[in-house]
Amino acid sequence: MHVHSVRTFLAGVFCAFNVVSAAAADPQDETPGRSVVDVEAVLDRVEARGRTVNDLKCRVIYTMEDRVTADVTRREGEILFKRETPNPRFFISFDKTIQDGIASPSRYWYLFDGRWFHEANQKTKSIIKRDIAPPGTEIDLFSIDNAPFPIPFGQRKDQILKHFEVSPGDGAAGAPPDTDHLICIPRESSRLAAQYSRMEFFVSRTVDLPVRTVMVSRDGASVTRADFPDLSADSINRGLDELSFRLPLETSGYAVSVEK
What is the b/e burial string over 191-215, where b = at least 16 CB atoms within 10 angstroms of the residue's CB? Predict the structure, then answer.
């Protein structure tokens, strides 16, 4: 997964948890047999839930579809998040890859330890490190404008309103059960508009966090999806410690390079 794909994945995972909009569903605009999602109510739930999350651990399934070549890549793994000062930590590990129906045991790890962003690849036995927050430098990782990647919790409402227009979706075929569907369109003034034409979020009505995110590229040629199949109340505030946010021992002999 190259840098752009990493950022696409992180954007889909992390923007998902705290999207807020001023646009509410019109109660008059109803189709018989289908209830209209109250966007404001859903987003209030998501925002309130986000404030209670100190750490999170769950499975993730990441699917990349190239609509031009019809290639589909699916990666399965785990995501961990921990709120810390001054910067949070997150760790994404993939232990299974399926490329056009063929499974591979190759593993990939993406770790942000509060300073360094590590990208480790089992196949190439390599680690790329990027110094995101050097000592003495305080950066606002919650700012969509300036952050190198979005962070799920702590986003300011005015920041989200600046970057997205959000409206209720129709549920879509194959949507996760017991979810509210939101469609998020990046505003043309947002830097996200250069990458995406739309994002979709399926918010669980029980845990009040997205259990699926969908991202469509600006040109519509690629679609990426992140599913969190076991995300539940048990996934939140597990008391994750610092040892949970370290690359596995097998990477200790990998070649390391440092990039800006």
Answer: ebeebbebbbbbbbeebbbbbbbbb
Which candidate, 194, 193, 200, places its Cα nearest to that of 215?
Answer: 200
pTM: 0.83
d(CA 199, CA 214): 6
Domain ranges of the chain: 3-259
pLDDT in tens, 187-199: 998 888 998 999 8
Tokens of 30: 């109803």
* Alpha-carbon gap, residue 75 to 54, rounded angstroms: 26
Instruction: State the DSSP H helix or E strand holding residue 223, giving kind and residue range, or none if neither.
Output: strand 222-227
Q: How far apart are CA 132 and CA 88, in angstroms?
A: 12
Number of Cβ within a 10 Å radius of residue 162: 13
Tell me how far apart the alpha carbons of residues 151 and 87 are, in angstroms, rounded to a whole number: 10
Q: Phi, psi at residue 60, to the nearest 5°?
A: -140, 140
Predicted confidence (pLDDT) per residue in 13-55, tens digit:
555 444 333 333 343 444 444 456 787 788 788 888 888 999 9
In CATH terms, 3-259 corresponds, of 3.90.1150.10, 3.50.50.100, 2.50.20.10, 1.10.150.120, to 2.50.20.10
